Amino acid sequence: MPEVCLLAIESSCDETSAAILSDGQILSNIIYTQTVHEKYGGVIPESASRLHIRHILPVVEEAFLQSGMHKTQLHAVAYTQSPGLIGSLLVGATFAKSFAQALTIPTIAVNHMHAHVLSNLIEEPRPDFPFLCLTVSGGHTQIVLCRSPLDMEILGETIDDAAGEAFDKSAKMLGLPYPGGPLVDRYAQSGDPMRFQFAKPRIEGLNFSFSGVKTSILYFLQAEKAKNDHFITENINDLCAGIQHTIVTILMEKLVKACKETGIRNVCIAGGVSANSGLRKGLQHYADRYGWKAFIPKFEYCTDNAAMIAMTGYYKYLKGEFSELNLGASARSL
Questions:
Q1: 5-118+302-318 maps to CATH 3.30.420.40
Q2: Is the pTM of this model over 0.90?
Q3: At 307, phi and psi to the nearest 5?
Q4: N or C: more exposed end of the chain, with fewer CB within 10 A?
Q5: Helix (H, G, I), strand (E, B) or coil at 314
Q6: CATH class held by domain 126-297
Q7: What dihedral do alpha carbons 107, 6, 301, 312 form, nearest 10°?
Q8: d(CA 157, CA 65)
Q9: Hey, where are the domains in the chain?
Q10: Which residues pair with 266 in a beta bridge?
Q11: What single-letter DSSP state applies at residue 135?
């Protein structure tokens, strides 16, 4: 089989990323993270788009420099087509299409969530097919059955808020700065997860719900602050540990259910929240308990990155699944 060389672009939210893949191996994975949004407490879509425009060319140049490859060696350009912030997606898609046209090579449109699942295939150890993947990010929470690199089925997903959103909004209730999820994780490591416990929703099947969890946390904090204005600061570690334990338990209970229903014992996690230490430990704990083979990507491949776009693009290239230049970006999965 001839060598396949791809440039991949990821720009679905506030990370500008480019990667070079050669024959299934990631040679470089450059990520520029926008920090300007921290002072606003969330991503400002227009600012994100403008920063993508400013940084995409330097990021791509650095990706080529680190890989040792030249643009003339490329066979295709892969890019994130959906889902995400539409302005951010358009920057990456437009750059990818223009770059490919200049080289007269095809483009490959990639679904961002599909790519998160395949981040588990970037490096060894890789899961055997079929496997289940718990994909957890700021905007999505899904249990995905992956039969092959391009054959996936969503078995369950959130019916309201995503787990990552629950982490960030809980952090905001605690007065922590954005992005709050990593800070909850940091404080939780020094806390008692059983001291404060919060409501877990009863949702049938494999779907998730986190809106009730947030409400439970909000009402609890309001009641305790009414009695002691310093309650949060005095108990921040235990509060974070309790919040994290509640969210991780909800995720793991559904994953256990999915494994029992499918009989699959190869289990992965993916998405930005898969960098959470509590979730990573939780997966390994349940894997030991139920005899699963657990797979956890490196931190570099948990957050939004172009390496996962490149890996997905590689499998689509092998199948000849190229994209028309008139294919538009989409904020939602098609």
A1: yes
A2: yes
A3: -60, -40
A4: N
A5: helix
A6: alpha beta
A7: 50
A8: 39
A9: 5-118+302-318, 126-297
A10: 293
A11: E
